[in-house]
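Still learning. Show one?

>
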Amino acid sequence: MGIIGWAGQAMNNKWTATPATPKENKPKRGFWESMTSIGAVSRLSNDEYAQMLKERKFKIDVEIALLDDKIEAMKKNQAIKPAEQEEPKN
């Protein structure tokens, strides 16, 4: 009996419900438009993107130069150590 009462009440609620107010007709935005509005992503022009790539390349070149200097220092250090080992100790 409870199921019949529940079903009847559900049908009554459906028929007597007031129609929902229509949503405003906003143009739908795409994924990238919504991402740019919250600041997660920004659009870049070709020039801005090229400048960003140049900056990244410059940073990488600096890191490579620092590593090259460290490698040279290590090679010099290793060249000195075997020469010290060959010298006779008195």
The radius of gyration is 37 Å.
